[in-house]
Specification:
Shape: globular
Number of domains: 2
Radius of gyration: 19 Å
Helix content: 40-55%
CATH class of the largest domain: Alpha Beta
Number of helices: 15
Strand order of the largest sheet: 1-4-5-6-7
Number of strands: 7
CATH topology of the largest domain: Pyrimidine Nucleoside Phosphorylase, Chain A, domain 2
Largest sheet: 5 strands, mixed
């Protein structure tokens, strides 16, 4: 059965067909009209879990014959799309986690749905992104590397104009955090759409994560929040369990999601610095501590998320998180408000 026919009849694609699908979408000699039709057909139905694994592997394989590895590495990131306009929580979390000695390979992009994406914030911080070839040596020296998705997967630029022609989200809204160029040991991935958690969790298991957590934040965010029960899918050596996590059970105060609102890159830079230098004691600090605690638990630094929260607090209180930021050469003007 031809690929377009399978898409028209809404049949699931196998690995070979998914690879062909990706190759056609990124090919220079495929017309935009044909690409648009194919992606619309694919997006007209709910994708299967297998298809999510297939498309992630196809995208990775299109750039990396053998994915590089860095022992003990973790990425903390989200899908975006929650429309919360929160400050850059996962980027701030990265400094805290790296200050515990966990090698962090943060894969991010420019903003699509908020005022400031992770690379927008890095520009304001005057912190450079690294190439894949530079990453291992950079982590040896700094403990943390930021990679830009447009540099690690330039093929996605071919798909971007087609995605913008489709009003609904596509499968590519999910794949970004899944296709870190490094084969990670650990990952924490926030997802704005709770209905996708089980599929993403299984895909992370399929991609070989040693331990990972996929979460949907209370009241619709793609980060763990302070406003109620966060839905957690935890992957350990291929086994998956799910549960809820409430920040109040970890001795963190309740706060509405609106208290986590950020702004442009300069405003978010001020928020990050105030958290790392221990001046901000608000809900913004607490949400960083919560998400850092989850990452420290996933990366086997502590035995529980509660212990991870306690350790994250210590890393900020002791100045270790700020030292990690300074080690990266981050901008350190006095942004106190």
């Amino acid at each position: 059965m031809k690929l377009l026919t399978k898409l028209q009849q809404q049949h699931p694609l196998n690995q070979n067909e998914m690879t062909n699908f990706i190759q056609l979408l990124i090919a220079d000699d495929t017309s935009n009209e044909k690409k648009l039709e194919m992606l619309q057909r694919f997006s007209a139905r709910e994708f299967t879990q297998s298809e999510l694994t297939f498309i992630s592997r196809s995208l990775i394989d299109s750039m990396y014959d053998n994915q590089p590895q860095y022992e003990g590495s973790i990425c903390v990131c989200g899908t975006g799309g929650d429309r919360s306009n929160s400050f850059n929580i996962s980027t701030t979390v990265s400094f805290v986690v790296a200050s515990a000695g966990v090698p962090v390979i943060k894969h991010g992009n420019k903003s699509v749905t908020s005022s400031s994406g992770s690379t927008d914030l890095l520009n304001a911080m005057n912190i450079k992104t690294q190439s894949v070839d530079e990453t291992a040596n950079y982590i040896d020296k700094k403990g943390l590397a930021f990679l830009s998705a447009t540099e690690t997967y330039p093929i996605m630029k071919n798909i971007q104009p087609i995605r913008k022609m489709i009003a609904m989200p596509t499968i590519f809204n999910i794949t970004g955090p899944l296709i870190n160029p490094f084969k990670l040991d650990y990952q924490v991935m926030g997802v704005y759409d709770a209905t996708k958690l089980d599929k993403i969790a299984q895909t992370l298991a399929d991609l070989g994560r040693k331990r990972a957590i996929v979460l949907h934040g209370a009241n619709g965010m793609d980060e763990a929040t302070l406003s109620g029960d966060n839905i957690i899918y935890e992957i350990t050596e291929g086994m998956i369990k799910n549960y809820t996590l409430n920040a109040q059970d970890l001795d963190l105060d309740y706060a509405e999601n609106e208290q986590l609102t950020g702004g442009n890159a300069e405003e978010n830079l001020a928020i990050t610095i105030d958290i790392l230098n221990n001046k901000d004691q608000s809900a913004k600090r607490d949400v960083v501590v919560l998400n850092a605690g989850i990452a420290l638990y996933v990366s086997e630094q502590v035995e529980s998320i509660k212990a991870g929260v306690e350790k994250a607090n210590e890393l900020i209180n002791s100045g270790a998180a700020l030292e990690q930021y300074k080690k990266m050469g981050g901008q350190l003007h006095d942004y106190s408000r």
